[in-house]
């Protein structure tokens, strides 16, 4: 593992910016064996220093890698033997009335199924895998994001694939736990407009505000209600950034400032940069999300990203932002590096 920069919370993040090459990461993970794709972050609330970063190695001989917060692989936790694991997400407190699991869920595209592991031990709790898109001609699952409904604590998986019809491209599943602690999934809706110009991979959910964002890669980022029971669940609420990307919109994450505000972060993959949009929309329209900042980074051709909106990591002031890079690694940035990069100064937990 290469530690590229040692920082303290007192150093301004703008010091890490190069106009020619973009922000330099604070740490870079150990490389995966084949093809890094998508990260997720699990925060240990009791001991934040023991938090985990998960990352997929998208190969037929693939794996779900597990790293510490400095980018060192934890070999005893990495899950090998997966067939083209594509994207991964984390959620907290599955079925608090029974088995109280924090979970990592990964799409295993080669076997057309979800794999589910309890955290932090990475113990499989899915009886070998949960088939996706049953009855469909294209069952090759790709993107995954988890939604925990505030009202009742139910957890849902929103899954995309590498081809599908407009109006029902994505499927949403409710995750259930049986008496022995095994997780299953029940299909609750199919939804999602598609431009039919590329594919839909990246999906992100804002639990608190209750919205799903997904990248229709050559059209922009589409926004829907996350609650499948919402009366307007099948209505598109917004299309973000249709002309804001070098070629295609990719990985999405949400920086949550804790008061209903923050930023939607979207990878401009071919631009080696990230676009920032207001999470709360505008004063006039909560579903209007204009581009407010573009940030260049050292991560190459980044397809997936995740952010921990927290001040719990002193090495990463303002929060930890992790971006996949095509050199088989994951780059670790501090949010304050993003917030203080040239352009509009963004709000931060460290303010």
Using the 3D structure, state the CATH architecture. 6 Propeller
- Tally of separate helices: 1
Could you give the order of strands across the largest sheet? Answer: 1-2-26-25-24
Enumerate the spans where pLDDT stays under 50 for 5 or more consecutive residues.
1-19
Strand and helix order: EEEEEEEEEEEEEEEEEEEEEEEEEEH
- The end-to-end distance, rounded to whole angstroms, is 30 Å
User: Regarding CATH, which class?
Assistant: Mainly Beta
Indicate the multimeric state: single chain
Q: Give the helix proportion (percent range).
A: under 10%
What CATH calls the topology is Neuraminidase
Total strand count, please? 26
Silhouette: globular
Most strands sheet:
5 strands, antiparallel
Q: What structural class do helix, strand and pairing data support?
A: mainly beta
Radius of gyration: 19 Å
According to CATH, the homologous superfamily is TolB, C-terminal domain
Percent range for β-strand residues: 35-45%
Q: What is the count of structural domains?
A: 1
Protein model, in words:
The chain has 351 residues and is mostly beta strands. Helix content is 1%, strand content 43%. It has one helix spanning 335-339; strands spanning 2-3, 27-28, 36-42, 52-57, 62-67, 79-82, 85-94, 101-108, 113-119, 123-124, 130-131, 141-148, 155-161, 170-177, 183-191, 200-206, 211-216, 220-225, 238-240, 249-256, 262-268, 273-278, 293-296, 305-308, 320-325, 329-334. It has a 5-stranded antiparallel β-sheet with strand order 1-2-26-25-24. The longest helix has 5 residues, at 335-339. It starts with a strand and ends in a 12-residue tail after the last helix.
